[in-house]
Amino acid sequence: MAEEARHTYTIRLSERIAARIEEQATGLGSTPTTFIQSLVARQFDNSAPERGSLDPAALATLGTKLDALKKICESLKQTESERYGQLLFETVKTRSAIFHSLDQTLGATVVDEIIDASEKAARQYIARLAGAGEAKS
Asked: Is 21 exposed, middle or buried (0-12, 13-18, 19+ CB in 10 A)?
């Protein structure tokens, strides 16, 4: 298939518009020339796109959106981790205060029995979770 003849146009843009074009092109991972070419081609090219050809501006836009989505996911993971850490801290702090209070009120022997019963219940719960995980596999 023969390549179409190309024409060169020289245009002048204000500094503000040129800066916005460069910023947009950089954000899309493209050059300003390629970015402008894709905008003009999209506006004026009425022919059907060639099979398998992809619009560089569309690809660049998609890439930008994917990067933004990746950043959001990373932020959510970080936020989730921070919330988990805060929840864990508060749980341990509360548990410590309760055990200290119980130790003062009921005595060390009773508190030791409570801890032993809690650990036994936790082991049983983990064993049930492990069994359920194996059943799903």
From this structure: middle
pLDDT, tens digit (0-9, with 9 covering 90-100), for 46-92: 665 554 456 777 777 777 888 888 888 888 888 888 888 889 999 99
d(CA 20, CA 1): 36
Question: What's 28's DSSP letter?
Answer: T
pLDDT at residue number 3: 64
Domain boundaries, given as residue ranges, for the chain:
9-45+55-64, 76-137
**Among the listed residues 53, 60, 69, 64, the one whose alpha carbon sits nearest the alpha carbon of residue 4:** 53
pLDDT digits (tens, 9 = 90+) for 2-61: 567 778 888 898 999 999 988 888 887 888 888 888 888 777 776 655 544 567 777 777
CA distance 114 to 102: 10
Indicate the SS3 state at residue 93.
helix
Give this prediction's pTM: 0.35
Query: For 118, how many CA atoms within 13 A lie in the half-sphere containing its CB?
Result: 8
